[in-house]
Amino acid sequence: MDTEAAARAFHIRIDRELTHPQVLRLLDEHLAGMRAASPPECVFALDLDGLRRPEITFLTAWRRPADAPPGAKTEEVGELVAMGALKELTPTTATEGGHGELKSMRTSARHLRQGAAQAILTELLNLARQRGYARVSLETGSTPPFDAAIAMYRRFGFVECGPFADYREDPFSRFFSIDWQ
C-alpha cells in the first residue's frame, strides 16, 4: 500500500488525554512487547505519564467500520489500529531547524501489514515538517521483532546513525535519523 493510500484508510488524530480503553490496551501491548524483546535497562519506551508530557504529540489511527452510523465519532465506533508519538528534542528557531524523535510506534497485532504504521509515520513526519524540524531521529530494538519496523523506516529515508539525545550505545538498540536540511 502506498503511503497516501495508507493515510486515507485510517482516521488519524492527536490524542491529548490518552484515556480511551483501546489506547490503554495498545500501550500495554507495546510496553509488554518492548520488555519481552530487550533487557530492562535497554527499554526506552514511554509509559502513560511519559506520553502525556508537553513535549510529546501522541497520534492514534482508527479504522471506522463501513456500517458506522453517520455522525458517530470514529473513536466511539471504530477500532484502534496503531499509535505513534513525536517528541520535541530541540525546538525550531528563526535560524535553525529543530530536532524531533519518534516514540511509541506500535500497530495492533490484529492489524499488522495493513498500512497503519505507514499512515502514522507519514502523519508524524508531516507534523515534524510543519514544525520546521531539520532532523527526526528514533531509537529501536536490534533483535528480530524489530526487523519489519527497521525496513519501514529505511523505506521512508531514515539512515542508521549514532546515539542522540541521552541515549548510549548498547547491543539492543539501533539509531536512525532523517535529515531535511
TrEMBL record:
InterPro entries in alphabetical order: Acyl_CoA_acyltransferase (IPR016181), Bact_Acetyltransf (IPR050832), GNAT_dom (IPR000182)
EC number: 2.3.1.-
Record-linked Gene3D superfamilies: 3.40.630.30
SUPFAM superfamilies: Acyl-CoA N-acyltransferases (Nat)
A GO MF term: acyltransferase activity, transferring groups other than amino-acyl groups
Residue ranges of every copy of the N-acetyltransferase domain listed in the record: 22-179
Top-level division of the source organism's lineage: Bacteria
Cross-referenced PROSITE patterns: GNAT (PS51186)
Major enzyme class: transferase
Keywords, alphabetical: Acyltransferase, Transferase
UniProt entry tagged with the keyword Hydrolase: no
Entry keyword annotation includes Transmembrane helix: no
Family matches, as Pfam families: Acetyltransf_1 (PF00583)
Protein name listed in UniProt: Putative N-acetyltransferase YsnE
Organism of provenance: Hydrogenophaga pseudoflava (Pseudomonas carboxydoflava)
Gene: ysnE
